[in-house]
Amino acid sequence: MGNEPANELRVSLLVGLPLAAALVAVPTFVSDVFWLGLGITVLMWAALATAWNISGGLAGGLSLGHAAYFGVGAYTATLLFLRFGISPYFGLLAGAVLAGALGAAIGAITLRLRGPFFVLATLAFGIVVHIAAVNWRDLTRGAAGLLLPFGGGARNMLFAGVAPYWYLGLGLLALTLGVTLAIRRSPLGYYLVALREDEDAARALGVKVVRCKVAASAISAALTACAGAFYATYIQYIDPSSTTQFEISVQIALIAIVGGIGTTFGPALGALVVVPLGEILRASLGGGPALMLYGLMLIVIVLAAPNGVIGLLQRLLSMMRSGARRRATTRRSRGHA
């Protein structure tokens, strides 16, 4: 157990550094709009899963209401731009602040809830926000949705091509990963892990439970709202079904779990597996058959890698290191012989 952070760091460096260099160069080599758009979608879901992981993985609060924060970010940035002409760059910050405040409030309200009771509470919160988005037509226009008119240009985060959105998505993912790394290496990160493992013991040792849970919930919500604002400007159209639907919360949690819940880079790797898998199956098989095969393949992935993709990579790295040590030992023994 004590070597897990070190192992994760080795895997992250071995995989993450070459991957980061490749990601920066992607628009230079990929001109197909479909594949570049798919890559942008992967980056967004990776950022969402990484943000969710702060409260759901590090703190152990398995939330099914993060679509609410995603919707708050999307609607805040869009409404500020449409009604007041405020750039989505500032709308993104406003949405993050509003969602962070909501996250802190939910964290405080659900403080004493654990396990399925906490999950149900977050689910109820997400459903309430979705119902509000559908029925508050004066503000959200309900199911008709809101359209961002193109014409703002780069100064308003509205681009004619998809390449700039690739770099914005990459920046969003870098932000969520950077915040996660900073938390994991800070006292707050150790406190959150202690709360996840045994809240009563952590409380007895002096961990400030209220402060830690509220902080984790607020940070996770704020980062999720940033992804919502990014989504709104990228798609340039939002409605309740695309921003606050319950399935969005499930997808976020699923990606984090497949990648490796509680790890730093696992959720991003989960998005790299889950999102292309779903999109390619839908494009090739369509509707029902694609969903059935998608579900079966996810079951196989979870069974094959119960600790997530990052755990599988850790095991492979450990096996490679063990094999290298055995080969080195064999060579030395032959040399002595």
Low-confidence stretches: none
Assign an overall shape. Answer: globular
Bin the strand percentage. Answer: under 5%
Cα separation of the termini: 37 Å
Mean residue pLDDT: 85
Rg from Cα: 21 Å
* Total DSSP E strands: 2
Count of individual domains: 1
List the helices and strands in order.
Answer: HHHHHHEHHHHEHHHHH
Major sheet description: 2 strands, antiparallel
Structural class by sheet pairing and helices:
mainly alpha
Q: Which sequence of strands runs across the widest sheet?
A: 1-2
**Number of discrete helical segments:** 15
Question: Can you give the helix content as a percent range?
Answer: over 70%
Quick recap:
The protein is an all-alpha fold and 337 residues long. Helices cover 80% and strands 1% of the residues. The two termini are 37 Å apart.
Task: Describe this structure as you would to a colleague.
80% of the residues lie in helices and 1% in strands. The protein contains 15 helices and two strands. It has helices at 4-29, 33-58, 66-84, 88-109, 115-135, 137-140, 163-184, 187-197, 199-204, 209-235, 240-243, 246-259, 266-285, 287-304, 308-336; strands spanning 146-147, 237-238. It has a two-stranded antiparallel ribbon. The longest helix is centred in the last third of the chain and has 29 residues, at 308-336. The mean pLDDT is 85.
